[in-house]
Each structure stands twice: as structure tokens, then as C-alpha cells.
Amino acid sequence: MTTDRYPVALVTGASGGVGRGIAVSLGAAGWTVWVAARRPVEGQQVADEVTEAGGQGRFVECDVGDADSVAAAIAAVVNRDGGLTGVVHNATSALSPLPVVPLTVPMDDLRNHVAVSLRGAYLLARSAHPHLAASKGSMVLLTSEAGFEGKVRLAPYAAVKGAVRGLARAWAREWGRDGVRVNCIAPLANSPAMEVALAKDSTMAERVLGRHPMGYLGDPVDDIGPVVRFLLSDEAGYVTGATIMVDGGNRPIS
Amino acid sequence: MSRIPWVIGTGPAVPIAAGLGTELDEVPAVAFDAEWSDGPRIEEWRSRVAAGPKVDQVVVAVWPESPRSSPVVDLDLDGWVSTMEEQFALWFAALAAGSERCADGGQVVAVVDRPDPMASGGWSAVSAVADAVEVMTRSFAQIHEPRGVRVNLVTTPARLTGSPPEELVDVVGAVAMLLSGGGGVTSSVVHTGGAGR
Hints:
heterodimer; A: 254 residues; alpha/beta; Rossmann fold; seven-stranded parallel beta sheet; 9 helices; 7 strands; globular; B: 197 residues; six-stranded parallel beta sheet; 5 helices; 18% strand
């Protein structure tokens, strides 16, 4: 990062769950954090948590699948804070934890998965790139263990999470000489979405935790957020195009 | 049941079908907009195809016409939708239908364009589709494993690097190897295109 006015990060889907954990963790390190989400009440609550943690929390309403909404959110950040040093794309479809049969999944539902995870990443990349280049900043995309191994009941979710890794790998190469880094994390965390998935599938808890080396799901603030903070920081200045598993060793791949 | 592979895909995959000694069963030509207005056509095709007679060997190759590289900052939304989202949707539907049509104990092989990771700059949409198809392959391998169906993937950079069509012979060879069913291989990826991959 090259400016003394930042760091300023925008985190999508940060009105709860893992996104909230990332936002609060960044706040604890003094970052200005824009909570970008569709739910203003919950989003503002997280922004307040960021401020209480020691940062500057701000909320901006954002539908990541909508080009105008994404452009407006990025513009709001830059206009208010003078630049942007980090973008974290955490948002995923509300359908993510719901089991489906691939042969009958409606295309509208598949589109929803793609719009939030992939079109959202694309729109953020396009809008944020000039500002990240100016700040020598960084982008972090959230993938998942599912994006490596596939899922029997969550095939659309797994597929979009796999695609995210392809985007990060390519963008890291496209933007490296601009001084912009792009990485992924694959978290395994306790979150509302995980709770829904566990509730919908009685065998999932045993599958997820039965062979887990550490035996518990990560905490979004204490376990997941600090890794994103590292990737956004200068300490990770030579890390790009990588996916870091933040899963307590559950899936030993990289 | 027939041992001649059933090959489903888009027009550019005709050489794959020909190399395997059969014809291509084409997925519907679509032109996605941002709202995926052609989605219902894919749903109808998926249902109709999945209900057909079982086959022992299925090959899926959804290949876009003339793939071109473009840095993401130069890729407009229409380009993004056609090179990434449309391909994603077609792949998902074709693999779902193809896996369903595969007989118990049969083989499914997908063949996808994939840039060399070290040359993936400018190919983010294609890279994303390739990584998505890899994960779809793993999902469908797990879904159909109880029926003894094996699902694997072959990747090729040939069309992205402008390699001559003769290079597809290697791709056909990899597909044929996986269709043979030897070794109980499933949920695996075979990268063609040279040792540097």
C-alpha cells in the first residue's frame, strides 16, 4: 500500500457471517471498512461493530450482481475516503446452503449463484482496479473447500466457488505489474449459512467435523478475518494468485 | 447398450466426436443476455436429453466458438456473459444430463478448454469456466458413484494457443483412455498439452 491516508477496504456480503468477521477483524487493526450489503439495518450494525473494534465502519448498500450498484458503491468509497486499498468479495447467493438436484435446478437459481459470486467478482474487479492500482492494493476472493472437492448436494455452490479460483489466478497475472495482488481464501467457518446447511443435511456435521484435525469450525472474527487482513497487508506483498485454506487443516490441498 | 460414445457439445467439438468415431449431438445454440433469457430453453433441452436411452460412454465438450483473450478491464458485461456465464450454464446442464444418461458402471468424460495457468492472464473467463467444470466433474462423480459411474475431465489449451487441429489427436487419446474405464479412475483431471502443464 502506498498512501498514508488508507487503509480502506470494502467487504461484500458483510452484514453477517464470515463477511462480518472479516470486517470486524480489519476494524480491530484500524482499517476503515465499508460494509457492502443489501440489508441496511444489519449492515449498519456491523459497521458500528467495526467502529467499536477500533476502525471506521461505514455502510453502503450494494447488490453485487448489479453493475450500477457496484460502481456506485466503489464511487462512494473513493469519494468519501479518497481511495481504496482492499476489496474482499465474500458475498454468495442466499441459495448457497440449500440442497439441490442438479438435473432439475432452475436456471434462474443457477443464475443467482453466478450473479452473486462470479458476476459480482467481475463487476468489482472492473470498478475497483484503477483505485487498487493507484494504492498498490489487493483483492481477496472467497472460495471454499467445496470449490476444490465438489459437493453432492450443493453442486451449483461448489461450481461457482471453483470458478472463483480461476478468476483469481488470471487476475493475479493481469494485475501483478500494476502492483495489485489477487488471492483467495477457502474458509471453513461457523456462520448463518453453515448453520442452515447443517440443519438441511443431518449427515453434514459428521462429514464436516468427523475427521477434522481440530474438531471445530473457525470463528469468523478470530480465525478467518486475520488471514484476510494479512493478505490485504504489505506483509503479504509477495503473495498473489494463491488460495489459502483457512479450514483448520480439514482439506490438505492448495 | 452401445460402446460407441455419445458425444454432446457445441459445434467446435465435432473433431472430438469424429476422432471417437461418432457424431456430435449438439446442445442448443443460445445467446445469453444478462438476465439469462434463454435459460428455459436449456432447461427443456436438459430434461429431454436426460430422459433418453442409457449409454455406456458419454463425452461432454461444450466449446465456445473462437475463444479470445481479453483482460478483465477490457471485458464488457456482454462479453463476460457470453464467455463465462453462458458457458457455465451450458456446462452445468450438459454434465447433469450426460451423467444422468450414463448407464450404471459407465464412463463420463468432459473435455474443456483451459489455459496454461502460467499464461492465464487475459483468459480469466475461460479459466473460471475450466475451474468450474473441474469442480462440476467432481460433484457429478460423487453423485453418480453409487451407480458405479465414473466421471473424469480432460483439459486442453490447444484451441486457446492456436495450435493446429492435429493436436486434438492427443485430446481424443486422453478421452479414449478414460472411456476405457481401466484402473477405476474417477473424479480426476488429465491435462493435455505438454509436460509444462
